[in-house]
Write a structure and sequence with these properties.
globular; alpha/beta; 2 domains; 6 helices; four-stranded parallel beta sheet
Length: 162
């Protein structure tokens, strides 16, 4: 019994260290993608992600095999990084940018997109952002002076969305 517990613990520890990188441009082969992806990899990276893919993800369109696979990964407690194939922030669905999704969106140049759901963005919201962050701000949001100063000091790119 102890041997089984130790084996499971070693798999879980190894899982936390492992990540898997795939391209969304590859044809999805159900026989090659499945539960083993999620059992042995805590974090998965999907490269070359287009706007149509993001739209399907935001709409939870599980008729697409990649989207179905991604949602299966959520069930296993996996986190995902989606490396975008485009740099047009207005095409990003807002629902994917909030922090309650276990998905991180990266621009073509490796910066992380963030959007804060609160009307007033404070220092507390942006204190840990770095120059590898792009903050998308809605027109109806207000950034406090201290938060704005912090964003400037940390060289955080800010983009206003309509």
């Amino acid at each position: 019994m102890d041997e089984l517990v130790n084996r499971i613990l070693s798999i879980l520890i190894e899982r936390e260290k492992n990540s898997l990188t795939l391209s969304s441009k590859q044809t999805f082969l159900k026989e090659r993608r499945g539960a083993t992806d999620f059992i042995y990899h805590q974090h998965l990276v999907l490269e070359n992600v287009g706007a149509l893919f993001l739209n399907k993800l935001a709409n939870k369109d599980t008729t697409d095999p990649w989207i179905e696979w991604l949602f299966s990964g959520f069930d296993y407690g996996c986190t995902f990084t989606l490396q975008l194939a485009f740099d047009v922030p207005c095409l990003l669905p807002c629902s994917l940018l909030y922090d309650d999704w276990p998905v991180q969106l990266l621009s073509k140049n490796g910066k992380t997109y963030h959007m804060i759901s609160k009307r007033v963005i404070t220092y507390k919201d942006v204190a840990l952002f770095s120059k590898k962050t792009i903050l998308l701000i809605a027109r109806n949001q207000v950034v406090t002076a201290f938060a704005q100063e912090t964003l400037m000091q940390n060289e955080v790119e800010q983009i206003e969305r309509g």
